[in-house]
Amino acid sequence: MDIRILRYFLTVAKEQNFTKAAEQLNITQPTLSRQLSALEDEIGKALFIRGNRSVTLTETGVLLKRRALEILDLEEKMMNELLEKEELIEGTITIGCGEFAAVERLAEICKIYKQKYPMVQISLHTATADSVYDMMNQGLVDIGLFMEPVNTEGLDYIRIPDSDHWVVGMKLDDPLACKEYVTKDDLIDKPLILPTRRNVQSELANWFGKDFNKLHISFISNLGTNAGVMAAHGLGYPVSIEGATKYWREDLLVHRRLYPEIAASTVIAWRRNIPYSLAMNKFIDEINAFKA
């Protein structure tokens, strides 16, 4: 069955008139009628109910229309994929992110993307969500990974729910290291190292409740790595997300989850309704495919 004839058939089905369809296809009406009559002979069933002024589809015609649309859609996708393979896609994509577990998901996306488009360079910028958000608004960062809460106004994004958990770090010989988890009562009199972000501090304030004002906040730190260094020197207990603890030295620090647990969701976001490069559009496709 010729793809060209399927297009003829779909045009007649759309126009419900052989003459109008022939004009649209830029062929003569007798030629079109002859081609589709041959198709009916090949199938062995009528495809059209022919009236004086218009034609309608038979039950077989309706089925063929559905399958023909699927075939032509598949052909278009195949041709696009073949053309993309021949097309040299290059450029740079800048990704801003913090230190958290969802970076593992980002790595999975990047791995698939680099296999398809090896000429594209990906630039990683590690910073807090506030800094990444500002850089995105300035056009300096294309993709941002944010731990919630974050303002998503003006952004398209996918959410990775409960992708991280809040923990507290301590030295290996600390009494808290013997506990399965750490409660707020365990931390009231401890020198704490809290995240810089105000939104995140608010989350912790909700967790501590009325005792938040009693806390001894020794340091604030924008990223967990340096907070871990301070903790290794006995200067405090960093309250951080679990993903950031991968950057701590296991021979110096351990971590325990807070209880009641605080789960953190992450969003992978990009600015909405702006023109992007082909490389960037392909990366967005990979993000959405990961979501699916």
Automatic annotation (TrEMBL):
Alphabetized SUPFAM superfamilies for the sequence: Periplasmic binding protein-like II, Winged helix' DNA-binding domain
Keywords, in A-Z order: DNA-binding, Transcription, Transcription regulation
Source organism superkingdom: Bacteria
Domain HTH lysR-type residues, every copy: 1-58
Keyword check for Hydrolase: no
InterPro entries cross-referenced by the UniProt entry: HTH-type_LysR_regulators, LysR_HTH_N, LysR_subst-bd, WH-like_DNA-bd_sf, WH_DNA-bd_sf
Family of this protein: Belongs to the LysR transcriptional regulatory family.
Record-given protein name: LysR family transcriptional regulator
Top-level taxonomy: Bacteria, Bacillati, Bacillota, Clostridia, Lachnospirales
